[in-house]
Specification:
Shape: globular
Number of domains: 1
Mean pLDDT: 94
Number of strands: 6
CATH architecture: 3-Layer(aba) Sandwich
CATH topology: Rossmann fold
CATH superfamily: 5'-nuclease
Number of helices: 8
Largest sheet: 6 strands, mixed
């Protein structure tokens, strides 16, 4: 079930989506995604983790992040999110090596967004891992979360 706010979806975008704007393979759908955000078709939630990861990114990615920041909600890294992150690791969804990817999913989940948008197909947008994240979420009293690439959430004209 997708929770909507004023006829648009509240969603979490991880760091890969910001970088995707400047990657030839992901550029077009990433730009369309942020255009939809600017037009208020989505309520964008990002996180303190994204802010930290963006610090190591190229200047153009930092600039995009700071342009989008005023129309975004930033979720903080809380104990609740850290405990959920650890539950994902304990369930062997991801190893400790990829704990930041688990934290992105945990931050989105505890922020009660409808979906996560990411270009991380190995650890986040992965058909085997999504049901596992949701099984842990259910056991911990959280709602299921949908996970898609930007390509799957942008609208196309007929």
């Amino acid at each position: 079930m997708v929770r909507a706010l004023k006829n648009h979806v509240r969603l979490y975008a991880d760091t890969s989506v910001f970088g995707g704007v400047f990657d030839k393979e992901f550029e077009a759908p990433s730009r369309l995604f942020f255009e939809a955000v600017r037009k208020s078709r989505f309520s964008l939630v990002t996180s303190e983790l994204v802010r930290q990861e963006i610090q190591a990114a190229p200047v153009k990615v930092k600039k995009l992040f700071h342009e989008i920041l005023p129309i975004s909600e930033i979720t903080e890294i809380t104990n609740k999110a850290l405990k959920l992150q650890q539950a994902y690791i304990d369930a062997n969804i991801l190893s400790e090596k990829y704990s930041t990817d688990a934290l992105h999913v945990a931050l989105a989940t505890v922020s009660e967004v409808s979906l996560i948008v990411s270009w991380n197909f190995k650890h986040i947008v992965n058909f085997q891992k999504i049901p596992m994240y949701n099984a842990v979420n259910k056991l911990r009293g959280f709602n299921d979360i949908s996970i898609y690439s930007p390509l799957e959430v942008i609208e196309y004209e007929d």
